[in-house]
Amino acid sequence: TKKLTDPEYDVVSGPKLAEKTIQEFPSQPELKLLDILYCEGGCINGAGVITKDSLDRRRQKIITYWKRK
C-alpha cells in the first residue's frame, strides 16, 4: 500500500504556498496527487467536518484547546 509520505503525494496549505506549488507542479512528474488547502493550516469548516456545532462554537473549541497548551 502507498503512504501519504511517499513523494507521489503532497499536501499544501495557504494561498502563497498553493500558488507556488501549482506553478512548480509541471516540473514534478512523480507527483500524482496534490491536495491544496487554500486556508492556512486547513479550513475549520472543511468538507470532512461532521458536527452540528456552529462555526463560532468550533472556533471557540480550537481557541480553548490552544490556550491549554
Automatic annotation (TrEMBL):
Question: What InterPro entries does its record include?
Answer: Fe_hydrogenase (IPR009016)
What protein name is recorded for this chain? Iron hydrogenase large subunit C-terminal domain-containing protein
Q: Which species is this UniProt entry from? A: marine sediment metagenome
